[in-house]
């Protein structure tokens, strides 16, 4: 069983290397992981402004959103990559004047398509689980409920920074710059929700004073 697993992993690695799918998978991982992290941050901030800090409610909303994003991302990535790989195979067949149906290139293309779809599905779920882990600890009575929002926000911002650093390393650019840009996007989300919350409070106070 273990020997079969090793052979399977070796074959998958070979297929990905032939197609160059590892680079595509990294790109999908960062993109969908980034979307998952920002969506989760929006849910956390929205719950906080609404006065809802119940761990079960936030966990349900966050996990539901991440699973939906994962499924959507998986189908989107699979269909997109399948179309691209099919076009590539057809162009190669036309250039070589031969069928590649049973070739290793065709098999590698199919493996790459499934692998990329899997990565696209997994990444938002991973970043969401990291951000929501304080709420899981709260449900287990390990972390006080009043600290969950703070810890979840810190973990979320840290996750964004790590994604930026990873992207910087992949592109062989300034990792601090990419990390900072990712963090900046998180702070923009926080500021937007703070603005909305402040505006709503002022509006309600104004409306209350106008009501006879």
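Sequence proposed for the structure above (212 residues):
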């Amino acid at each position: 069983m273990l020997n079969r697993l090793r052979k399977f992993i070796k074959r998958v690695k070979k297929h990905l290397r032939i197609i160059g799918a590892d680079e595509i998978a990294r790109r999908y991982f960062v993109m969908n992981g980034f979307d998952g992290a920002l969506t989760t941050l929006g849910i956390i901030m929205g719950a906080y402004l609404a006065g809802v800090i119940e761990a079960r409610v936030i966990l349900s909303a966050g996990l539901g959103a991440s699973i939906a994003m994962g499924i959507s991302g998986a189908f989107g990535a699979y269909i997109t990559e399948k179309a691209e790989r099919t076009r590539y195979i057809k162009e190669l067949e036309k250039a070589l004047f031969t069928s590649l149906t049973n070739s290793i290139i065709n098999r590698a293309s199919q493996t790459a398509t499934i692998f990329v779809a899997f990565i696209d599905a997994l990444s938002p779920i991973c970043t969401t689980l990291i951000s929501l882990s304080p709420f899981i600890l709260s449900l287990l009575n390990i972390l006080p409920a009043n600290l969950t929002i703070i810890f979840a926000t810190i973990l979320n911002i840290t996750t964004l920074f790590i994604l930026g650093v990873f992207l910087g390393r992949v592109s062989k650019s300034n990792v601090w710059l990419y990390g900072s840009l990712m963090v900046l996007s998180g702070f923009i989300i926080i500021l937007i929700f703070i603005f909305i919350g402040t505006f709503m409070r002022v509006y309600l106070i104004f409306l209350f004073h106008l009501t006879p």
